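Example record

The entry below shows one chain as it appears in the dataset: sequence first, then structure tokens.
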Amino acid sequence: MNYKNYTCLVVEDNLSTLTMIGHMLASIGYQNIVTARNGKEGWEKIQSSETGVDIVLSDMLMPEEDGLQLLQRIRNSKEYWHLPFIMITCVDDMDRIMSVTEEHIDAYLVKPVTEAVLRQKIYSAIKKAYDPDPYHRALFNGKKCLREGQHEMAIQSLEEARSLQPRQSATYFHLAQAMEKVGRMDEAEENYNLCKESSNDLYVKSLDGLARVYQYRGDHANAMEVLTKAIEVSPNTPDRHMDLAMQLKAVGNTGAAKASLAKALKLSRKKVKLPQRYIEACLDLGMDKEAEAVMQRSMGGMEDIALLNQMGIVCRRRKEFDRAQKYYKRALEIAPDDETLNYNYAVLLVDLKDYQAARSYLYQVLRENPDSEKALALIIKLDQREEY
């Protein structure tokens, strides 16, 4: 391999450390070196067609956007998910380190960085990514097929990788994911357990996989057990607390479910938008105030009729009728013919005893869907009310 052909992106907020690593890379032989002062700037450099980044070396703790956030951006992207990534850190905080190990990284560099260690780590990461041996080539193809939804092809490549190098935890993990996707749950469980027993970096994610398998079977007790273990090791992942909350709710432990969901919301407070299931979980557990806060944050200044509708439902539950009316009116300005919006607003108007206005919205529902049983039933109730 010719080092000169590869472009290194170094992301570091400390100027002296950034300069030192740049000099080391140049001394080793890398001539194409790009720098950034935080994760946000680093992500912009990665996306630039002029930069052509081949490997990322990033500090963990930085202002505005840290190394973990940059790593998650990369791993969640369609185009750059495969980029080799080396994390640079002097952090002694195991919670943070475990959060990083849950994402795929190629190596750590612990400050103060030495040239000899940097040379070895970066060479190994680049060779594995760009000049792979047959095992790493099969593993990469399996991961790529898995991301693209080609699950049977993924299984084929990953089984090839397993035959080339047995007992590799990464192979077990991704093979388990592929088995899970095609419904081969017994084999998925077997491979997640094999990964868990042979890996530090993928241990926690293997527990997450086992939790999904147990949840699929309706085995809430085992799902809660493995999620609790995962949280003990790596407590700062919001989705894990969210999953535990849903398992606790399923067995009727509402108080503990609310506590777990509250923890998930606290840990995810920096995220601009949360998945829909967070809103639904809040509503299911009667945490209406939290549901509204999540919905308002998710809209981010843009009107979304689904969220406005849900906010109307939340406010109506809390008997905040004026606020509910405001949300429904805003939603109906965007989608005046929406069947669900018109029906839900009609229900609110019944609560407000504005029966004539409620009828007009119910008739709008029937114009869109003459067979709407809900609208017809509510009109019959209004008719009966007026008879007395």
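Notes for this example: The chain is about 65% helix and 5% strand. The two ends are 89 Å apart (CA to CA).
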